[in-house]
Structures are given as structure tokens and as C-alpha cells.
Amino acid sequence: MSNVVRTGEDAANTATTSNRFGRSVESQAQIADAAQLGAPDVGAGEAMNIYRLEPIASPDDPRWDNSPGHGVITVAARTTGDARIVAASRELDFMEVDSSPAEDVTTSQASAFRDDKLYTVIEIEHGRRDLRRGVVEGTVSVDTIVSVQI
User: What is the DSSP letter of 127?
Assistant: First the structure.
């Protein structure tokens, strides 16, 4: 954000602002979550919601070619977006096998759970404090990446 003003002042334009990105409580929580993805310790003691991730695309949708589905998964997470991250974090990542991603340093962005055209997220319970962040029900397959290891 620029510090340019139109008040007739002769202050130098340094093209900066005193605002700081990522200082809010929400931003700090998102930064910590991103660093640990699906770790159950993230958000310990916080109220969690239960979400059901359901496939919504038809079985012949070409998007399934890039991101295989896992059926219905139930997770405990903070938000719908966090529910997608929790589910995707259970999939095998390319760094764990001899494969490489197409666009990033991780394959988590390619998860079917993160595609709103493949999966929808439905909140089924709200504000539970007796849960840990993670998959509650369902199985996330680890065969989403084909390894060339022998």
C-alpha cells in the first residue's frame, strides 16, 4: 500500500505504509496452521466444528483424472477452508516418494479436497471443544501419487 496522499503536503513518497501484514490473531493462526497443515496439535483447546466433505462431481468428470476421490470424509476443523486443508494433509505428498509436482514444491494444492467443483464441505456440528483437529471418519487413500521407485 502506498503512502501517497493528496493533501498538498511535501512529504516524500517512499511507496510504503506502516501497516503490517499478518499481525492479526487470525493471520497468526493461519500462518501456524499452514506450517503444520494437518497436525492435530494445531488449535488444541479451541472450539472445533465437524465438517463432512462429499464428492459432488459426476464420476466421469475429467477433474477426477488429476485428483482421485476418497469418498465421504468427516473432519474436525476450524472453518470450511481448514476442513479442506486437514483432509488434503492426509494424502501422500510427492516429497515422500520419488515423484515431482507440476506447479509447486508440494502436491497438497492438487488435492481433490481443495477443488470446490469436486468436493463440497458441509458443517454438521459447531463449537465442540472435545475434539482434536483431524480426520474423524473415513479413509484418505495414500495412492494419489504414482511412484517410480522400484
Answer: E
Instruction: For the beta carbon of residue 70, count every other beta carbon within 10 angstroms.
Output: 21
Residue identified by cell 497436525 is 39
Nearest to 67 by CA among 100, 136, 114, 122: 114
Chain segment 27-55, per-residue pLDDT in tens: 666 666 665 655 556 556 788 999 999 99
What the block records as the C-alpha cell of 50 is 465437524
Q: Characterize 77-95 residue by residue with b for buried, 16 or more Cβ atoms within 10 angstroms of its Cβ, and e for exposed.
A: bbeeebbbbbbbbbbbbbe
Instruction: Please state, for a pLDDT cut of 70, what percent of the chain lies above it.
Output: 53
CB proximity list for 6: less than 8 A, separation 6 or greater: none
Amino acid at 72: V
Residues forming a β-bridge with 74: 52, 137
